[in-house]
Every structure is written in C-alpha cells, then in structure tokens.
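Closing statement on the adenosine-5'-triphosphate sub-project.
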Amino acid sequence: MTLIFDLHVASRGVQAACSLGAGRTLGLTGPNGCGKSTVLDVLAGLLIPSCGHASLQGRTLFNLDDDARGTWVAPHRRAVTLMAQRPLLFPHLSVLENVAFAQRSRGLTRRAAREAAMGWLREVGAERFASRQPDALSGGQAQRVALARALAAEPELLLLDEPLAPVDAAGKEDLRELLSRVLEGRTAVVVSHDPADVEHLADEVLTLGV
Ligand SMILES: Nc1ncnc2c1ncn2[C@@H]1O[C@H](COP(=O)(O)OP(=O)(O)OP(=O)(O)O)[C@@H](O)[C@H]1O
C-alpha cells in the first residue's frame, strides 16, 4: 500500500483510516462537517492530529501513536500537495508565474520553470490564460490553473478538496473529464459531497460519518 493512514482529531471529533494502493484515487465523502477537509489538512501537514499515523510510499508522514516516539514531518517535506476548495492563486503573480512557482522553489532556472509551467497549463487546457492575472479568471478557469500548479509540484500524493465546487453545471462535465484523465495512475485523495463525482473519479471510497 502506498498511502496508509489512521488518524484522530479529537477537537473536531474526526476519525478516519485507510490503505490505498499506488496510483489509485480515494474518494472521501460524507455529509457537511463530517471531517473531509480535516483529513486532507492532516495529510498535508496543516493540522497536527491528536494521535494516529500515516505513511506514503513507506515514508512516515507522522506517527503520534502512544507507543511511538512521536514523528511529524513538516508540510514542505512530505511530497504532498493540497488543492484547496478555493483556488488560492497568488494574486500578484501571473497565471504562468503561479504555476512556475513550485519549480522555482525547487531551484529550477526561471526559464526552465516557465517552460515546465507552460506544459502543465497545456495539460489542463489553460495555456491561453498564461499571461493573465488571477483576478481576470472565472472560477472554473482559476480551478484549472490551481490544478496545473498542484501538478507542477510533482507530488507523490495529490489531495483535491471539492475540485468541482467552483464550476457551474455547464463547466462541470469538462472539468470532471479533465480530472479523470489527470488522476489516472496518480495516488490521490479527492473530497466531494457529490456521489456522482466520487463514482466518476475514485477507485475506492471512504465515507465519513458525523
Ligand atoms: N478551523 C477550525 N477550528 C475548529 N473546528 C473546526 C475548524 N474547521 C472545521 N472545524 C470543525 O471540524 C469538523 C469537521 O470539519 P470539516 O471542515 O473537516 O468537515 P467537512 O466534511 O470538510 O465539511 P464540508 O463538507 O462542510 O466542507 C466540523 O465539526 C467543524 O465544525
């Protein structure tokens, strides 16, 4: 199993456990407030759970079980990328610079990072927006750019929180097809409250209760 987790966040009453094979997509579903975003935050390293453990490709992400010495790996060392519910693009950077940011952070030259970023924008059908500022994008366009930025980080685990939420019904089918293509062969967790999206995108399903 590539992704293994068993976690508990006492302050939010959230408990979840799962083992996921390499290249597979887990659909995380359940009613409002059941803890879907909380699970993603814990896996991304944005929230420290009360107890539990998680590993990715045999590497520990955290191990806070009673009998463990207590390991917690910082978010930027996890090779995990979270695409949040809102696109959260950097407002002062162009679309291209937003997507190039991950590679620039990893030490690529400006030119190499921009070339790679253009490739990812092409991948998600957003290359025509490359020179725009984020505030000139629609919700669906911004979501595609956010997806390109997440992919550009080349994470071992991709976390998507309600990726279809910002698009209207007309754009939903296109974005769903795009996500389906992009998720093929990637290890990912996709949160959605919509059973149709989970059915379409996920290989396995974990339903949380309230
Ligand atoms: N920042 C926070 N501080 C304290 N409690 C929080 C915080 N965010 C969420 N919670 C609580 O944690 C629980 C789980 O919330 P979470 O947002 O993970 O659920 P969710 O399933 O993603 O909900 P939704 O479908 O509405 O996005 C809820 O009871 C919520 O009130």
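The chain has six helices and ten strands. With this model delivered, the sub-project is considered complete and its resources will be redirected to Aim 3.
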